[in-house]
Amino acid sequence: MANRLAHETSPYLLQHADNPVDWWPWSPEAFAEARRRGVPVLLSVGYSSCHWCHVMAGESFEDRTTAKYMNAHFVNIKVDREERPDVDAVYMEAVQAATGQGGWPMTVFLDGDGAPFYFGTYFPPAPRHGMASFPQVLEGVSSAWTGRREEVAEVAARIVGELAGRSLAQSGDGPPGEGELAQALLGLTREYDAQRGGFGGAPKFPPAMVVEFLLRHHARTGSEGALQMATDTCEAMARGGIYDQLGGGFARYSVDREWVVPHFEKMLYDNALLCRVYAHVWRATGSELARRVAVETADFMVRELRTAEGGFASALDADSADGSGDGKHVEGAFYVWTPGRLRDVLGESDAEFAAQYYGVTEEGTFEEGASVLQLPVGEGVVDAARVESVRARLLAAREELRERPGRDDKIVAAWNGLAIAALAETGAYFDRPDLVERATEAADLLVRVHLDDAARLARTSKDGRVGANAGVLEDYADVAEGFLALAGVTGEGVWLEFAGFLLDIVLDRFVAERGALYDTADDAEQLIRRPQDPTDNATPSGWTAAAGALLSYAAHTGSERHRSAAEAALGVVKALGPRAPRFIGWGLAVAEAALDGPREVAVLGAGSGVESGAAGAAEGESAADGFAALHRAALLATAPGAVVAAGAPGSDEFPLLADRPLVGDRATAYVCRRFVCSAPTTELEHLKGELGVFE
């Protein structure tokens, strides 16, 4: 019989709806039940594409003996961390403080008021490698609860007190300057892996936010070292197994430092961030590899993550059926190849070619002699037509013969905001209006389903049905970022207006003293502490993402309120950036924009008869062509964080367009900082030079 999770919309929670465990969703009723029964709460936090979450579920939560003990001695709460990042953040902080490490599944034992007293992550069904079994943990916690209740209460009270004292006061007086950004670059240089790209050792995560900082720093200062670290890292990832060489898109991370073997789950947020970063690498360098990866990643998101409602699903699982026919699911089964499997699809000659080109060996690079496809051979060395034929046939065979990994279909507002920005810019750069259209449809969905009449965002939806959980800071910030990018690409000022609504909520509901920001609104559910974290994780922190969106909105509108809030929020980057640059990359990227201006580009000419070729257009060029060329150049600006407004003279859609006339009835561009502009230009090459356009 299904448990209480059967009524939830989260795919992760629904995966546990038929467990013999009597799961509760996170709710006041669950804690009231624990108090009524006088038993502790067992909180289990995970997400649908988490490999070890599936492992622990199969070993323990589907085991009737274990479930019977859990039901008798605990109130069991299951949380999807992607739906409730606030709950996850608060208790993960406690787990990391107590054990020195964290991860998912997260297993925490709480009292009836939510205070934690014992922590862990994955527990095996039997003792293993010095690790206690899950039944042993359950019995030990239950014994402590019944026999040493005062000691448990003291531990819980101490932990809650320590967490409450961690509220982060703002430090640093204003945004970072030249000195702090130079120190941050030096710190990254020390941690850079010059042989393999990226930063640190295994496991190695795609450093999208850090690469964005490096690109912006190079654009502002000309630092060749910054550009080299960015481009070499992106090339190493693109040639490695972390990138799907057949279907495009990136896996979550590499288990080794060489980028060879990924953890195979594919997340929307990683692919949105990396699509945009590779597009920006192309913008800075003209790299054909970067262009290809950006476009393929965009196409992957549209092909495999887009939902019927026009938004983008959260993730693809790491696991799928292994083809044995017994229903067993294993990690990476959909993606890996052996020489024999290549021969089955391609025949002897092409299989030998593919094995050499993609690095498939008899020994394998993964498990049981299988290999993850890589690109060890430099492009241009082999027959491009043959490569494309082999790739297309392998992709078709994979789609036809292998079971696809499961998909988490919920729409997360923040991650869709990241996807909107990536698709809008990639579509604009590479003449793909279909990608801009997909970005617009996702933005429409967020407005239609996630945004209420008071401009409050819901965190998630599924199948067009809005979820019950309130948006957190990253939702408001990343959706605003996506809307601002879409406004610049489309010239539709309504997206600037919607971004303004969201950022007003940020200023009214999320700001603390001295410019600090909380991750939850002041009227959100009160947990044991109000979460607050300025450092990046797999995505930009809500704190620094909000700073970036506030800064861009101020550049569009001239609002000192938004500019001041952005600069105050960047104070934490001034304090942390020189010491921990890997973990505050987006904040450093925003600081680069603040130091550069950011530049405001107004492009006028569309409408008012200009599109049909008004007098004054260059010979052989319509006025519409001139406007489109200037608009494209503005979008390709490498100047850090530049904002773009495009439209007709006198348009009221963008404040940047107000009171700015055409020059000689020709399409005209103005480049400004804080609404103080240089002389207007009608010359494309002049604008490119002013904005650092590579193309």
Give the helices and strands, then pairings.
Elements: H1 11-15, E1 23-25, H2 28-37, E2 41-46, H3 51-61, H4 64-73, E3 75-80, H5 85-99, E4 106-110, E5 116-120, H6 134-147, H7 149-164, H8 178-191, H9 208-221, H10 224-239, E6 253-254, E7 262-263, E8 266-267, H11 268-285, H12 288-305, E9 313-316, E10 319-321, E11 329-331, H13 339-346, H14 348-358, H15 384-401, E12 407-412, H16 413-429, H17 433-450, E13 460-462, E14 465-466, H18 473-490, H19 494-509, H20 542-557, H21 560-569, H22 571-576, H23 585-596, E15 599-604, H24 623-635, E16 643-647, E17 668-673, E18 676-677, H25 684-691
Parallel strand pairs: 1-3, 2-3, 15-16
Antiparallel strand pairs: 2-4, 4-5, 6-7, 8-9, 9-12, 10-11, 12-13, 13-14, 15-17, 17-18
Helix pairs in contact: 4-6, 9-10, 9-11, 9-23, 11-12, 11-16, 12-16, 13-14, 16-17, 16-18, 17-18, 18-19, 18-20, 19-20, 20-21, 20-23, 24-25
Strand order of the largest sheet: 1-3-2-4-5
- Tell me about the biggest sheet? 5 strands, mixed
Percent of residues in helices = 40-55%
Overall average pLDDT: 92
CATH class of the largest domain: Mainly Alpha
% residues in beta strands: 5-15%
CATH topology of the largest domain: Glycosyltransferase
- The outline comes out as globular
Could you give the distance between the termini?
A: 62 Å
- List how many beta strands DSSP finds: 18
Radius of gyration: 26 Å
